[in-house]
Amino acid sequence: MKKIQVGLLGCGTVGTGVAKLLIEKKELISSRVGMEIILKHAADIDLETDRGITFEKGVLTTDAQAVINDPEIDIIVEMIGGTGIAREFIINAMDRGKHVVTANKALLATHGNEIFKLAGQKGLDIGYEASVGGCMPIIKSLRESLVANDIQSMTGILNGTCNYILSKITQDRSPFEHALSEAQAKGFAEADPTLDVEGFDTAHKLAILGALAYGTTINLEDIFVEGISKITPLDITFAEQFGYRIKLLAISKKRKNSFEARIHPTMIPANNLIANVHGSLNAVTVTGDAVGDTMLFGHGAGMMPTGSAVVSDVVDIARNIAGGNIGRVPGLSFQQDRIKTIPIMPIADLETHYYFRFSAQDRPGVLSRISGVLGNHDISLKSVIQKGRKAKGPVPLIMLTHLAREANVMKALDRLSELDVISDRPMVIRIEDSSLNHEKAVIRDE
Questions:
Q1: Are 94 and 261 in contact (CB under 8 A)?
Q2: CB atoms within 10 A of CB 248
Q3: Residues 91 and 104 in one domain
């Protein structure tokens, strides 16, 4: 039976999951692929921690470069993370003719163009299913299953930390800070959660998906990113009154000569399938011109779900090696000479519906002043809720708009922030709801 030898770099949480599956499911994998896949070495700076796995003698090492240099190793699995030493190790491995598997979305989003180009030049395969969506096979779907489709759009919950926090705010009406603390206590959020809650982790993933979907170079820099740290229980409550839920969404839509790529809190109808994905789960919908709407759903992180996706890449590459089919599927789905640089549409050109929450003085003429400014910027209103007629001080004033242009919205909000009847910067949440139409504005006093 043919043997494929694997070198693992990094034996942290996900790396341990990979090692566990390769060791404990060795017979199952062999029975399915018809060859033996052997974890020859696992490199990590910490050899003392009990990982709950029985490694054979000599497998664990602190010398990552020795693993890369080993002529018997066919596939290097990079589980170190980050964009520094991980990049060096991957390039060194490819220079030595090793195929690579990684879950490192930050690395691919920032250096992916270089890495995929080198893999093509060297005639090597690179697997990265676990970089987006954990165990959801979104990479394989775009690279293989949907190969005959023009991808029209993608919408996804791609960060379990944010989804958990928003689910807790929705369920308990707890402030963002309390929901974040609970997420940290349960291990869903890092001690420094900035990468997650401010949307940057999701942007890394969308940069990869955009390249796969549209045949463009990876472009992280031009993705619009807005996080969830300003979402309040009050916004959740008003969203529900309008029939919406709030999710941090990665949204991409194909345009004529460009494509949208944006990350931001979004109001979506409560009966939307993605609106009902709760807790730390992920989901993504892909719309193709041939298949219509498809949806994947599952755990986007975690030792075993992510480890499972990594091992699936190892097996795919092992099969390619055994069958002499290296390069069977291009790294970025499109042939290298067909990949173009397609621009991302500036967020200022976006046209969508908007939710506004103003903290306004409760006195006559305030609504007309605000609506006047909005009208002067070509923003028409669909619904208005005025709260707290008997309250003292600023009260919430809620507005939903018809289709409006982002550039006009931002200019209008700048002007409105200057009014003496408004306290603080208005809250803005974009709405994705194809059912909205141009009804007459409705004003409700509560």
A1: no
A2: 26
A3: yes
Strand partners, 286: 154, 294
**Domain of residue 326, residue span:** 3-137+303-338
- The model's pLDDT over 224-241, given as tens digits with 9 standing for 90+, comes to 999 999 999 999 999 999
Closest CA to 398 of 428, 438, 435, 432: 428
Q: Residue type at 68?
A: I
Q: What is the pLDDT of residues 213-227, one digit of tens each?
A: 999 999 999 999 999
Strand pairing partners for 246? 267
Q: Compute the distance between CA of residue 330 and CA of residue 108 in angstroms, rounded to an integer.
A: 15
Give the catalytic positions in this structure. Answer: 205
Report the C-alpha gap between 274 and 295 in whole angstroms.
9
Structural domain ending residue among the three candidates 313, 338, 363:
338
Contact between 197 and 228 (Cβ < 8 Å):
yes
C-alpha closest to that of 285 among 197, 177, 155: 155
User: How does residue 187 score in pLDDT terms, banded at 50, 70 and 90?
Assistant: confident
CATH number reported for the structural domain that contains residue 21 in this entry = 3.40.50.720
**Tokens representing residue 416 in the block:** 């409105």
The burial class, CB within 10 Å (0-12 / 13-18 / 19+), for 82 is exposed
106 φ, ψ to 5°?
-65, -40
